[in-house]
Amino acid sequence: MSEVGVSPVSEKGQVTIPKEIRDSLKLKRGDRVVFLEEGEQVILRKAKTDRLSEALQHQKPWKVGALQFQRKLRKEWD
Question: How many separate domains does the chain show?
Answer without folding.
Answer: 2
